[in-house]
Structure formats: C-alpha cells, structure tokens
Design goal:
The complex is a heterodimer. Chain A is an alpha+beta fold. Chain A folds into 3 domains: about 35 residues; about 80 residues; about 200 residues, Orthogonal Bundle (MetI-like fold), CATH 1.10.3720.10. Chain A has 14 helices and 4 strands. The longest helix of chain A is centred in the middle third of the chain and has 32 residues. Chain B has 2 domains: about 230 residues, P-loop containing nucleotide triphosphate hydrolases (Rossmann fold); about 110 residues, OB fold (Dihydrolipoamide Acetyltransferase, E2P) (Beta Barrel). In chain B, strand 12 and strand 13 form a beta hairpin. In chain B, the strands form 5 sheets. Chain B has a 6-stranded mixed β-sheet with strand order 6-7-8-3-9-10, with helices on both faces. By secondary structure, chain B is α+β, with helices and mostly antiparallel strands. Classes of the chains: A alpha+beta, B alpha+beta.
Chain lengths: ~350, ~350
C-alpha cells in the first residue's frame, strides 16, 4: 500500500475513534441541558440545543395566549395556553428550561395581543437549570459529592503511601521473595473489588466502618496498592542510584536526598498511579452499593437516579457533574505525568 | 605525612568475595593518581569506600591525618564525578552546580559568584539555564565537572568519567581535565580501565588486578619498567610480546635460547639470571617498538600481516609458532617480505611461576 493510502486509513481510523468518543459525549451533554419537553423529542439532536423557537398567538375569543414550539420538522406544535403570566413563567421554566420573569414575558407577549398577529420569539434556555434541579430533586446530592471527594482523597492517600513504600522497598532492597511479592501485588489487582467487599462488609460492620468513606476507601485501595507498588517499583528502579549517591557525596543527608532528588524524579509515577486510584474511587458504584447505606457516593446516587424518563435529564446533568472533577484532576496531573525525566 | 593514606584497606562482599585485598597507598597533596585495571579489579570499590558510598571491611582511610571511615559521605569534603555523570535531570545546570553550595548554607551572592566562576572554567556558562536533557554528553560531563569543583573539595574522585563519551570527545575532555587539575591543583583520584587515559593524566598510576596492586609508578615507570607480566600485558597498545625462553650459560656468557634464536644477555639482568635461572625457562618480554628491523638482527622472519596506522605500521610475525606484534616506522614494508629482526636494549624478563619481574 502506498503512503497516501496508509495516511487515509490512519485518518479514517482516528476520525472513527474521535466520533466514537465524541458523539456519546455530545449526546450526554445535550440531554443534560434538555428541558422536560425535549426529553421526549424524537429524533434526538446530537448537537446541543441552546434555545427554543416559540410562537405566541392571542386567542381573542377565549382571551388567552396560545404558546407553540417549533419542532424538529419545522412545524409549530401547540404546547399550552394561558392568560396568566405567572402561570406562563412557571410553565416555561418547568417544561422548557426558560427562565424569564413575569414582567419580561408580559412585555414580549403583549405585542401579540395588541396587534392580533402571531409573534415569533427565540428564548434562550437556562443551561444550568438542570444542574440546580439535580441537587433539588435528588436529596443529598451535594452530600454525595462531598462523600465522593472524601473517598477518592483517602483512596489516593492510602494507595500512594502504602503502595509507594512497597514500590521503593521492592526496588531498592534485597529482600527474599521480592519477585513473589511484586507478582502477588498484581494478583490482588485481578480480584474484582466487589468480591472483596462482600466479606469485607462483615468486617467493616465489626470495626464500625460500615457506611463510612474510610471503609469504602480501604476497599478501593486494595487493588490500587498493588498497582501503585508495581508502577512505582519500576520507576524507582529506573532512577539511577548514582543520582542519589551524587547527592550524598555533595553534602545531602539521606532524607534530603530523597526529598530533593529521588522524589521529584519519581513524581510522574505517583501522578499516574494516583489517577488510577482516583478513577477507581470516583467511578465505583458496585462496592458503595454494598458498603454504604446513608452515605452514598455521587456515582451511586446517579446510578440510582436513572429511574424513569421524567428525570433522565437531571441524571444526565448529574453525570456531567461526575465527569468534571475527574477531568479537572486529570488535567492537573497531566503536567506531572508529562514530566518524565529521561 | 601523606595527604591521603589508604592503610591495609579491605573489602569483602557477602561472606567470602574479596573485592579489595589489603590495599596500601599514600597520596601526596596536589597529586593526580589513576587507578587502572580491568573491570572487576576493585578499583571502583576503593573509590566508593573513600567517598563513603561503600562500607570499609577492614583498614583505614586517613585524609589529612584524620580517619574518615566513620564519617557520612556528606561530611568528608570530597567531590566525585560519576560514570553516568549523575547530573540531576530535574534541575537546571545552574541548580545542579549550586546544589552542594546551597546545602552548605552559603550566601546567595557567594553561590552565584562561585557557580559563574566554575561555569567559566568548565565552559558551560552559556548553558546555565538549560536542563541537562537538552545538553550533549560532553556538555553534561562538563556540568558534572563544574559541580564537583564548585565546592573546592579536599579530594576529587572520578569514576570512569570519560567512558560514556565518544572517542574524539574523550581525548579532548581528557585534556580539559588535565588543564583543570593544573589550574586548581586539587588532589585527584581517577578510576579507569583505559590505559591511554591513565598514561596521559596520571602523576602516578596504580595498576590493579583482582583486588591487588600490581604496580604503583609514574606513567613512564609503568610502561617501560613493568613490574609484572600483568602490567606488561595490560599497558601498551599493542601490549608487550612474551616469548618463553631457556637460560643457558656458556663460557661465562649468559644466553636465552628460543627455538628460533639465541640472544646473549649483556645488560643488568645478567647477574640475576645467572644466580637463579640457569637451565630454567623464563619469559622474555619485548614491547612492540623495542625491536630492530634490518639492523644486524638475530633472526630472519616473514611479515605475516601488516596493519598501517598512519605514523607507523604494526607487523604480525610468527616466532616459533607464537604470534608477536612489532611496531615499526618503516612504512614501505610489504606482506611476506623477509626482514632481519633484532632486539633493542629495552627487554625484560619475568619469572614464569610468579609472573614477577626478574631484576
């Protein structure tokens, strides 16, 4: 195959991968800002819709406003009718995510009454409406967010401190059965956390850690300690001992050497493995379903919230909320991971 | 009193792996000492013991008359250049050089002054703000040198610092190191397995083998007056030629007899041979350049292979089934040409058992 053909194939593959990732993301974002009416729309739009096209007609006989919305096919479909602006305000925010005050609505609508013509309006959606509603509709969502952050932080702390120490020991000491330990730590990684959490539930109850974030974090840490040990071991091994020896010769104590030379050199490994730890804790639903009762994590709450079509758009905005901290954390660590010292 | 004294230094790994066996050396101030030997001869181990990176099994290290073996590496006032340079990749060149000074709690202005001064000496002034990853091997090496001389050490240790450089850079860096030593006059110990580095840098060379000292001497002594067969073989490129010969006495004259030639021994070794080695086999060692060609030689031989080296040629010759190498500046010699080979005065004899020099 010639190089042009190869290039085309390459770009096709890249485009396919991009779309496979982007389209579901776009769809999720679109639903997360959808209003109650749009949830039932078909066909669904891939690109997020940020505003509604409305037509307002004054019915002189019954003396009310008829409110219609432009549908996907381009025709205006009647939504509701009312003569009271406070009712219209409530309707707009509840079903269409349009937040307008009574006065603003009156100012726009009165034209239709005065002229007797159908008037066309383009109202922007309040894209944050669903997010606010999510916290209102699902009780304890903000507490769940705090819980999730707590669980993730403790998981990172536990896996980094214990796993990192094991990694250092495996790399720098000559203990018997070193290979068995490092292989064993990977085997632990193979266990599904759920299967550990069933027997652990009993233990956690005994220790008074059932339904606490510490208890959850301990379970999350189990597979991550092994992974961290494995990742950090290899990077500790790759740090040339002469870097440390040079520091010792040039006047640093062992602790200073670790702080100023060894640790900065292995930081990328810690950044990478803390990301794994974070993702384990952040995304888990199965373990927290088993091991928590009142103190849910955010992921679990969203999992539970996906009940019916009436609330699917709130669940979607909750899912977006779940993604954002993970994204922020990843971008924060990206710089460190990129700083692999050669 | 010697500036640095290594007294009966011994290093045992595990239970019975002796890396260094009773090592004695006295180094004067401002001296440039080179430890030379094949890999695994214990030369790096001694250096690491001096630096404090390796514990001492037995013996003592005295620096300025004071035992330093119980001191932490940081308290010994020693600086070191490592084989891999060990220039820290997460610090700029400036920070690398300033690292040791910062730990010594020197004022910022003084540090700045010192860093710039040594950067000029080692020719890295324009790279001070770069990271080592953006430097070439030679430049990194110079950063390591600058870092080492910045602290004005009592002792300057270099552990095969040139072995990671390419051949051309190695030679120029060698000159730089010698120049820096001549400027700063820091007592230095240099470890290498490269004899040309050793010969060109050292005031005195310590040739080591299997944890023993084979010979200590100036480059000239080591080369022209090798104490053992190991030294004669290890030093020189090509190395010394060894021929097994038998000592005979005839009418008060001493001859060494080889299957292809007989050579009368007239020089200072005559007495030593007469005393102990009559009718015994010994080793005759001749450096490749200590042959005479077509000048009243003692045997006729064919040039087997000729390797031109520009300024001279290396000739492979078979003498009694043994291959020897002869260096000659007669550039017109041809393969299979017959030449008249003789020996110059500079020949040496070694005991076949002890492999030591017969004097």
């Amino acid at each position: 195959m010639n190089s042009a053909g190869k290039k085309t194939l390459f770009y096709l593959a890249i485009t396919f991968i991009a779309f496979a990732v982007i389209i579901p993301m776009m769809y999720l974002i679109n639903i997360s800002i959808s209003s109650a009416i749009e949830v039932n729309d078909f066909p669904k739009r891939v690109l997020p819709v940020l505003s509604h096209d409305l037509s307002i007609e004054w019915d002189d006989e019954s003396s009310y406003y008829i409110i219609s919305r432009k549908s996907f096919s381009g025709e205006y479909e009647e939504l509701t009718y009312s003569s009271k602006f406070d009712k219209i305000e409530t309707y707009l925010i509840t079903y269409l995510n349009i937040s307008k005050t009574e006065e603003e609505i009156e100012e726009d609508f009165i034209v239709a009454r005065n002229t007797g013509d159908i008037i066309y309006l383009n109202y922007n959606k309040d894209i944050f409406n669903n997010f606010g509603k999510f916290f209102k509709v699902f009780d304890g969502a903000s507490a769940a967010l705090v819980n999730s952050i707590q669980a993730a932080a403790i998981t990172i702390l536990l896996s980094m401190s214990i796993g990192g120490s094991i990694g250092y020991a495996l790399a720098r000491t000559k203990i018997k059965g070193k290979d068995a330990i490092s292989l064993g730590s990977l085997v632990v990684r193979m266990f599904p956390a759920v299967s550990i959490s069933v027997p652990m539930a009993v233990l956690l109850v005994k220790f008074g850690m059932y339904d606490t974030m510490l208890g959850l974090a301990i379970i999350y840490s189990i597979p991550n300690i092994g992974l961290t040990a494995w990742i950090t071991r290899s990077i500790f091994m790759s740090v040339n001992p002469e870097f440390e020896e040079a520091s010792l010769v040039f006047g640093a104590s062992k602790i200073q050497t670790f702080k100023k030379i060894t640790f900065p050199l292995v930081l990328p490994a810690f950044a990478a493995s803390s990301m794994y730890a974070f993702i384990t804790a952040w995304n888990d639903t199965a373990v927290s379903l088993l091991l928590t009762n009142n103190n849910e994590t955010l992921a679990l709450l969203i999992y539970k919230s996906m009940g019916g079509s009436a609330s699917i758009h709130y669940a979607a905005s909750g899912a977006i909320l779940l993604i954002l901290p993970a994204l922020a954390f990843t971008f924060l660590l990206k710089n460190y991971i990129n700083k692999m010292w050669g | 009193m010697a500036y640095l004294e290594l007294a009966a230094l011994k290093k045992v790994y595990g239970k019975d792996i002796e890396a260094v066996k009773s090592f004695n050396l006295k180094v004067d101030k401002e001296e440039f000492i080179v430890f030379l030997g094949p890999s695994g001869c214990g030369k790096s181990t001694i250096m690491r013991m001096i630096a404090g990176l390796e514990s001492v099994t037995e013996g003592n290290i005295l620096l300025e008359g004071e035992s330093i073996i119980d001191y932490q590496p940081k308290d010994r006032g020693i600086s070191m250049i490592f084989q891999s340079y060990a220039v820290w990749p997460h610090m700029t060149v400036y920070d690398n050089v300033a690292y040791a000074l910062k730990l010594r709690k020197i004022s910022k202005e003084q540090i700045d002054k010192t860093v710039k001064e040594v950067a000029k000496i080692s020719d890295i002034y324009q790279y001070l703000n770069r990271y080592p990853n953006n430097l070439s091997g030679g430049q990194r090496q110079r950063v390591a040198v600058a870092r080492a001389i910045a602290i004005k050490p009592k002792l300057f240790l270099m552990d095969e610092p040139l072995s990671n450089l390419d051949a051309k850079l190695r030679v120029s860096m060698r000159t730089d190191l010698k120049r820096i030593h001549q400027e700063l006059k820091t007592t230095s110990i240099f470890v290498t397995h490269d004899q040309s580095e050793a010969l060109s840098l050292a005031d005195r060379i310590v040739v080591m083998n299997h944890g023993y000292i084979e010979q200590i001497g100036t480059p000239n002594e080591i080369y022209h007056d090798s104490e053992s067969m190991f030294v004669a073989k290890f030093i020189g490129s090509p190395p010394s030629n060894f021929l097994t010969v038998k000592v005979k006495e005839r009418e008060d004259k001493i001859f060494v007899i080889h299957s292809d030639f007989e050579l009368e021994v007239k020089n200072k070794y005559k007495k030593a041979l007469k005393n102990k080695y009559i009718n015994k086999e010994i080793i005759l060692a001749v450096r490749p350049e200590n042959f005479t060609i077509n000048k009243k030689g003692i045997l006729k031989v064919k040039c087997n292979i000729i390797e031109p080296q520009g300024s001279h040629v290396v000739i492979n010759i078979f003498v009694g089934g043994e291959e020897i190498k002869v260096v000659s500046n007669i550039l017109t010699l041809k393969t299979n040409e017959e030449i008249d080979l003789g020996f110059s005065e500079k020949i040496a004899f070694f005991d076949i058992e002890t492999e030591k020099r017969i004097r």
